[in-house]
Design brief:
The structure is a homodimer.
Chain A lengths: L2 H4 L8 H11 L3 E3 L6 E3 L1 H20 L3 E2 L5 E3 H4 L3 H7 L5 E4 L2 E3 L6 E3 L4 E8 L4 H11 L8 E10 L13 E11 L2 H21 L6 E4 L11 E8 L5 E11 L1 H5 L3 E3 L5 E3 L1 E8 L1 H10 L16 E5 L4 H20 L4 E3 L7 H10 L4 E5 L1 H6 L1 E6 L5 E5 L3 H26 L1 E3 L3 H9 L3 E5 L4 H11 L2 E6 L7 E2 L6 E2 L2 E5 L3
Helix pairs in contact in A: 3-7
Chain lengths: ~500, ~500
C-alpha cells in the first residue's frame, strides 16, 4: 500500500488533521509561501473547473452574463457604504505604492518613496462598491433593467486564522451583481440564486443543504437580508456554502444610481449580490471523504472511471490494451471521463491506493484471465465494494453505477444530517447537546443580544432561519420571551 | 441610423480615435474609475470567453493542466533573478499594509500604521518567481518531469500610458510554466507553444502572424530566448500578440530547483513560460473592423447569426415567429449561436446598425412577403453585401457562409500584410519607408547598439527574426557590417 495513504490521519483521531492531510496528500492544494494563501494544484483545480463550468452554465440559463471589473478599489469607494466599510476594513490588503527601486544605501530593492499613490487602493474583498460605481453610467431608464452580471475573480480578505479552501486570505469565487427596477423583482432574484446554489449543492456536490435567512448578526455588511445554504460536515459542524444578499437600495444610494421608472420618475435602483467560492472545495471534501481518502461525487470527479491492467509480461499487457482501448473510446463517446492507467513504473497496489486517495468513483481492474473470461473487477469508491462484471456492456453498467454512487453519497450525507439534528427546549439541554455537534433546532427571541450571549457561552451561532420546516411559535430557550419559530444553531467553520 | 453608429470616428480621420470609439460603442469595455484599468463589459467578455475556451482546450490537448498560484508575491522573490526584477520593478503595485481603521482625528478611514507588513508584497506582474519557488517542492526526480502547468489569472503592470485591451495596468491572461529534464525538450515545448498561438491566431482570430525570435533588447526579463507572434494592424503597425520564452536554467538556479536525472546526478531544471492576454482583443478589433464597427471572425463571434423580423402588425410578427422559431432550433442543433431579435422597442433600422456595430457575421431579415415566398434577406458583415436566400436549407447555407466569411477576412488581412511589407537596402530608404507604416525587411548587424540607434532615430524596433523566410546573408543597412539574414522592423503597439 502506498506510503501516502498510510500516513493519512484517521477522522476519529483528529478530524481537523485528517482534513489538512487529505488536502495535501490527494494533491488538491498546499500552503503557499505567502501568508494565508494557497496554491491550488492541478487535481484540485480540475474539480474547481468542473464546479465553475456547471455553475456558469446554470447562471447563463437564468439570463446572467459575465463581465470583469478591476482588482483594485479606491479606498474612498469602500467607505461610501457605512456598514460595508465597517465589515471589510479590518481585513484588507492595501496598495500604497506603484514602484520599486534599487536601494541607494545597499544592494537590494526597496519601495520607491516617491511612488506613493495619492489615494490608497484596496485589493477587492468583494466588488459591490466598484461595480455600483460603474453601474451609475450604465443605468438610466427602466429599459436598462434588469442588469444581470456575474464575474469570476480572485478576492482577498486578510484573515488571521486560515485553513486551506475553508478560509484563505486570497480565494477564488464568483460574485453576481444584479440591478432591478423593483424591490419585489430584486427579492425574487435573490431567492432564485440561493435556490440555484442549493440545486447545485444537491445535484452535483451530492451535499444536502438547508436554505434559510441569516440573523442580523451574521448578515453581509451592507445587506438588508442575507440568504444562505448551510451544510453539515461529517464532524457535525455547519459550513456556510453560499450566500445571496438582498441589498435593498443601499448601494444605489451610496453611489447615487437612479433610473427613470415607467411613470417617468427618478428612483434608486434595487440590488442583490450572490456568491460561492473555493470554500465549496472544503465542503465537498468534508461531506463525503473517509479514512482512505477523498470520495468524489461522480458529477464533479475529474476522472470518473480508472482502468488498471494487471499483468506480468509485456505480451499480457498488450493483450489487455487491445481489449481495453476500444472500451476507453466507448466511455469517452458516452461522455464519461476515463483514464486507462497502463503506466509501467507503478505497481497495481500502488495505483489502487492512489486512486482511492484521489476519490475516483469507479475502478476497473483487468488481468489476463479476465480477458479470457470476458470479465472485469469493479470497485466502487463510496462503499469500497468489489464485484465481478462482464466486459460486454460495461459502459452502460458503469454509467448506471456512477448515478447510483451519486445518489448513495447524497443519501448518506442526508441520513448523517438527520441523525445529527435535534430539537431542544431548554438552554441547559442546548448546552449539553451542542457539545455533541450537529444542528440544534431551538427557539430564540429574535434579538442580537440573545444570539451574542449564546455565541459567547457555547461557541454556537444561528446558522439560519430555515425557509422550510416547522413554523410553530414558542418561547426563547434563554430569555423565555416569545419566539416566532425554531432556528438552527450549530458550531461552524 | 443609430446615433452610436454615426458617432464612430472614421479610420482615415483618426485611427487611434476610431479604435477607442469602437471599443466603447460596441460595448466591449470602458475605462474604470481606477487609473489605467478597464471594465470588460459583457459583450467584450463573451468574446474573451470564446478565446479562453478554445485556447484552454488546445493547451489541454498537449498535456497541460491548469492550476492556481497566489496573486501576491513577496518582494524578495521578485529580486532573486537579477534581470527579472530589473524588468518589472519599475511598474509594480506594492501592498504594504493589511488593515484600515477609523481616523482618530477625523471622520474618514485611514491605513492603519500598525498593520504594516514585515515584507512588502507585489501584485504579480507575471508569476515565474512564485511558481518556481513552489516547483522546488514538486520536483525531485526526472520522473516528476515534465511538469506542464498553466494558470488563467489577472496580472498588474503599472503602465504609464494605457489603452484599453492593448496596454492596461491590470489585464487578464494565461501563463504557462513548464519544467523539463533537458534543454532540448524545453526548447521544443517553447516552440510548440508559439506554434499553437500562431494556429489559434490564424484559425480562430483570422489573423495572420509571423513567428520569430525577439532580439536581445526585446527579450523577456529573465529569458534566454523569446519567441513571438507578430501581427500587422490595419494602420501598418505591428502588434506583438503572444510570446513563448525559453528560460534556460535561470529560474531553476534562482530558486534552487534541481532534480536527480537518469544517471542519478543532480541537475538544474529547464524552464519555459508562455502567455497571451486580453491584448488579443485589441488585435482582433484592429485586424478586421471597419468604419461601420466591429467585424468579428465567425469562429469567435458570441452571436454568429442574428435574425430580425420586419413587420407592421402583431399578426405579421406572430406569423414570422411561427416560421422562424423552428429555424432557430435548427441553427442551435447545428452548433451555430443565433439570436432572434423580435424585441418591440427598437426599429429594424436601429437593430441593423447595432448588429453591424457589434460585428455579428451574418444578419437575416425577414418580412411578411418573404414568408409567402419562402425567402430571406441575407447580409454578410465582412463585405456588407446583401443577397436573397431561400428559407429552405438556410442553416446549411449560413454554415457555409460563416466559413466563407472566416476565410475571407483572413485572406484580406493576409493581402493587407503583403501589400504593407517591403524590402529595403539602405538606411535612407528605410527612413522613408518606415513613415508609410508596415513591415520592413532589412539587414541588421545583430548588435543591440545598432537596434537602439534605429529605434531612437525612427521609432521602429525589430519585431522579430522570422523563423521562416529569406535567410540570405547581407550587410547591415546602418553599419555595413555583416548581417546573417533580414529581420522585420516596424513601429508597434
Amino acid at each position: 500500500m502506498a506510503k501516502e495513504l498510510k500516513d493519512l490521519t484517521k477522522r476519529s483521531e483528529n478530524y481537523s488533521q485528517w482534513y489538512n492531510d487529505l488536502v495535501v496528500k490527494a494533491d488538491l492544494a498546499e500552503q503557499a509561501a505567502v501568508r494565508g494563501c494557497m496554491v491550488i494544484k492541478p487535481y484540485g483545480y480540475a474539480i474547481w473547473e468542473k464546479m465553475q463550468r456547471t455553475l456558469d452554465q446554470m447562471f447563463k440559463e437564468t439570463g446572467v452574463q459575465n463581465a470583469y471589473f478591476p482588482l483594485l478599489i479606491p479606498k474612498s469607494f469602500l467607505c461610501r457604504e457605512a456598514e460595508h466599510v465597517e465589515g471589510f476594513a479590518k481585513e484588507c490588503a492595501v496598495v500604497t505604492h506603484y514602484r520599486l527601486k534599487n536601494d541607494p544605501e545597499g544592494s537590494g530593492v526597496i519601495v520607491d518613496p516617491d511612488a506613493r499613490l495619492e489615494e490608497e487602493l484596496i485589493v477587492r474583498p468583494t466588488s459591490e462598491t466598484i461595480i455600483w460605481n460603474t453601474y451609475k453610467n450604465w443605468i438610466h431608464s427602466y429599459r436598462d433593467l434588469p442588469l444581470l452580471i456575474n464575474q469570476w475573480a480572485n478576492v482577498m480578505r486578510w484573515e488571521m486564522r486560515t485553513r486551506m479552501f475553508l478560509r484563505t486570505s486570497e480565494f477564488l469565487w464568483q460574485e453576481g451583481h444584479c440591478a432591478h427596477a423593483t424591490a419585489e423583482e430584486s427579492e425574487q432574484r435573490t431567492i432564485q440564486m440561493i435556490n440555484l446554489y442549493a440545486e447545485f449543492a444537491e445535484k452535483y456536490m451530492a451535499m444536502p443543504v438547508i436554505i434559510g435567512v441569516k440573523s442580523a448578526n451574521e448578515r453581509f455588511a451592507g445587506a438588508v437580508n442575507t440568504y444562505t445554504i448551510e451544510a453539515m460536515m461529517q464532524d457535525g459542524k455547519a459550513l456556510q456554502s453560499g450566500t445571496s444578499h438582498n441589498l435593498g437600495q443601499n448601494f444605489a444610494k451610496a453611489f447615487d444610481v437612479t433610473f427613470v421608472n415607467k411613470d417617468n420618475k427618478p428612483e434608486y435602483v434595487w440590488a442583490n449580490s450572490w456568491g460561492v467560492s473555493t470554500r465549496l472545495m472544503g465542503a465537498l471534501i468534508m461531506s463525503h471523504s473517509d479514512d482512505n481518502g477523498l470520495v468524489l461525487p461522480p458529477h464533479l470527479a475529474p476522472i470518473q472511471v480508472v482502468i488498471v491492467p494487471i499483468y506480468k509480461t509485456d505480451e499480457q499487457r498488450d493483450k489487455i490494451s487491445e481489449v481495453i482501448n476500444p472500451i476507453v473510446d466507448k466511455f469517452r463517446a458516452a461522455g464519461i471521463s476515463v483514464k486507462y492507467d497502463d503506466a509501467d513504473n507503478r505497481r497495481p497496489g500502488f495505483k489502487f491506493a492512489d486512486y482511492e486517495l484521489k476519490g475516483v468513483p469507479v475502478r476497473l481492474a483487468i488481468g489476463p484471465r479476465d480477458i479470457e473470461n470476458g470479465t472485469v473487477e469493479i470497485m466502487r469508491r463510496d462503499t469500497l465494494e468489489k464485484s465481478e462484471g462482464q466486459l460486454e456492456g460495461i459502459v452502460t453498467h458503469v454509467e448506471k453505477l456512477l448515478e447510483d454512487i451519486q445518489e448513495n453519497i447524497y443519501r448518506k450525507a442526508l441520513e448523517h444530517r438527520a441523525e445529527m439534528t435535534r430539537t431542544v427546549e431548554t438552554y441547559d439541554e442546548f448546552k449539553t447537546e451542542i457539545e455533541k455537534g450537529g444542528f440544534i433546532l431551538a427557539h430564540w427571541d429574535g434579538t442580537p443580544e440573545t444570539e451574542e450571549k449564546i455565541k459567547n457561552e457555547t461557541k454556537a451561532t444561528i446558522r439560519c432561519i430555515p425557509l422550510d420546516g416547522d413554523t410553530t411559535p414558542g418561547v426563547c430557550m434563554v430569555t423565555g420571551r416569545p419566539s416566532a419559530r425554531r432556528v438552527i444553531f450549530a458550531r461552524s467553520y
